[in-house]
């Protein structure tokens, strides 16, 4: 009887081990879906994936350049406007009673001569 019981214990432990291995492999397979993040080492390193990554990086760099140009243009326009506002304020606050601000030319002019003056 002891031979049968030791054989049963060995079989049950072997079955339990096999079932746990099947459970682990199915758990790993279920977690690597298209919606999840899985790390696969050298599993999907194909030339097609490398080309897609290269194109994506190139597209990102092109868009980055365009964003930088747009930002620089906006910054330059703002700087122009800022200088214009400062010049207008200086002209209007000037102690020179002959100074007036010309909005079309955006300059501070002498009322008598029409020449630009520095307030």
Automatic annotation (TrEMBL):
<dbReference type="InterPro" id="IPR009700">
    <property type="entry name" value="DUF1283"/>
</dbReference>
<keyword id="KW-0732">Signal</keyword>
<dbReference type="Pfam" id="PF06932">
    <property type="entry name" value="DUF1283"/>
</dbReference>
<protein>
    <recommendedName>
        <fullName>UPF0482 protein SAMN05421784_1401</fullName>
    </recommendedName>
</protein>
<comment type="similarity">
    <text>Belongs to the UPF0482 family.</text>
</comment>
<feature type="signal peptide">
    <location>
        <begin position="1"/>
        <end position="29"/>
    </location>
</feature>
């Amino acid at each position: 009887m002891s031979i049968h019981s030791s054989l049963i214990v060995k079989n049950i432990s072997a079955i339990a081990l096999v079932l746990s291995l099947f459970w682990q492999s199915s758990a790993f397979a279920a977690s690597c879906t298209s919606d999840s993040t899985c790390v696969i080492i050298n599993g999907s390193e194909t030339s097609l994936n490398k080309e897609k990554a290269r194109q994506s990086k190139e597209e990102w760099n092109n868009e980055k350049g365009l964003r930088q140009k747009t930002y620089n243009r906006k910054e330059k326009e703002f700087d122009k406007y800022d200088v214009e506002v400062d010049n207008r304020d200086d002209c209007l606050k000037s102690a020179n009673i002959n100074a007036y601000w010309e909005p079309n030319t955006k300059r501070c002019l002498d009322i008598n001569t029409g020449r630009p003056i520095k307030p």
